[in-house]
Structures are given as structure tokens and as C-alpha cells.
């Protein structure tokens, strides 16, 4: 069953237009991409108003065709990574006055290392430009299971390593056929074993999953060392994307949060508008 009408709790109030415009202008000045724009994030107004943005590395075209995602996928038009992007992001971070920065990426299966060296260079440039004390969170793809590439990312020692499982394993073949659930768990486990301070993951609800399946998913994430969890409502970017099966009530999100904390997660942000990088810095102190 597909649900068309959104409930009252999914209405967004936008404030502080001038502050959001300042952030937008910095992003455009350095010709950068943000997941806020590319993924049509519902929190863009709030985050941009607070002078924060999640920078998206390696362009704005993805090599995978996940049915829930708004990021463009057209392998025929994909460009080589911009070698200047790491420095440009570092300058934007400085101009925005950030002391905590979140980086994400498009999946680049066309690159031998999936973009790992580019990620490493970006983290290095941010520290060079802004000082070693800046907090850096990185949300990466599964790097096509390339352990050497993952190790290169981990060598950069981000404070938080994030990789999203996105949904329960039963729905992988429908929603993200080029991904592998067990491979995603291995990525997270390897990051945890490498000594990264915090490992993080997230998933969506409203795709047809059941509560017992969510409980098992949480158990899997805890087993591989994940300590920070995000849970949000799936919102179909268009009628061509996978349809929403359910708009989950805020009370259910609260129950999922309590379930996660009982299972041992340090922090769980759970709510209709929660996304991977939402209030990322707060997750460390929550």
C-alpha cells in the first residue's frame, strides 16, 4: 500500500532566512556540493540557519541506483574527482567558523579505491586549515568492500565514522540491490576494531519493516560496535522512487529510541525528520 497524504507532524517550519542564505552563499562561492541539497534533506533550512552543512565529496552523481535516494545517478556523465575539492572544503569550513564538520560522499564504484584517498586528503586539509582540534565526522559508502581503501580512510582518524545500513536486510534487494547488508556490517565492525572513537549508523522507517525486524537490526549494529544510532522517516523524493508504506507516529519513534538505549547505544536520535548528520555534534554529548 502506498500512502500519499502526509500527517500533521511532517510539516516543516522554516525560520531565519538571512542566516541560511549566508551558508548557501559560502557553499556556492567554493562551488561545493552538500547532501542537504542533493538528497533534498528536510532539515536544510534549520541547519543552514545554524551555519552548518554536510559537505558531499566526489561530485554529485552516484554510481548506484538505490530506489529511496534523491542523489543523481548517471554513470555516463560522472566526472573525475575535483583535486581542488579538499582545499575548497577546508576554506569553507574556516569561513563558516565550524568546530565540527560532517563529510559525506556519493558512492564511486568507478574509482579503484572508491574515493578513499580523496577522503583522506579532505580530512587532512581541513585540519591543516582549521587546526587539529576540529571535530570531523565522515559518512562513507561501503567502498565496494575494498578493505585497503577503508583502511586508508581510517588512517585519517575521524572522530566519528558513519556508515548507514539504511534499512532491514529483507528490503535490500528491493531498495539497494548493489549493496550487501553483511558487507555494511563488516565496514562498521572494521572501523570499530580500528579504534575510531565513535562508530555510527542509521536507518529509515516507513518502508514496510516490522518492529521485530528493527530490533534484530539494532542487535546487529550493537554487535559490530556501533554506539550512535539515527532513525528517521522515509520520505519519497518523487513518485518514481520507492513508495512510502507508512508515516510512523512520533510516539513510535520514541519507543524505538528507548529500545535502542536499552540495547546499549550511547545515543539515539529517533524522529520523523532525523537524518544521518542531524545535530551530529550534539550526538557526542547527548
Account of the 3D structure:
The protein is α/β, with parallel strands linked by helices. The chain has one domain (12-284): Aldolase class I (TIM Barrel, Alpha-Beta Barrel). The chain has helices spanning 17-29, 35-38, 44-49, 85-96, 116-130, 147-155, 172-175, 181-193, 211-223, 250-262; strands at residues 54-57, 100-105, 135-139, 160-162, 198-205, 228-233, 267-271. The protein has a 7-stranded parallel β-sheet. It starts with 16 loop residues before the first helix and ends in a 15-residue tail after the last strand. 42% of the residues are buried. The mean pLDDT is 87.
CATH topology: TIM Barrel
Succession of helices and strands? HHHEHEHEHEHHEHEHE
Rg (C-alpha, Å): 18 Å
What is the CATH C level class, in words?
Alpha Beta
Structural class: alpha/beta
Instruction: Kindly report how far apart the N and C termini lie.
Output: 37 Å
Give the name of the CATH superfamily: Aldolase class I
Q: Give the amount of beta strand, in percent.
A: 5-15%
In the sheet with the most strands, the strands line up as: 1-2-3-4-5-6-7
**Average predicted confidence as pLDDT:** 87
Shape designation: globular
| Poorly predicted runs of 5 or more residues | none
Q: Compute the number of helices.
A: 10
CATH architecture descriptor = Alpha-Beta Barrel
Largest sheet: 7 strands, parallel
Provide the domain count: 1
- Strand tally is 7
How much helix is in the residues? 25-40%
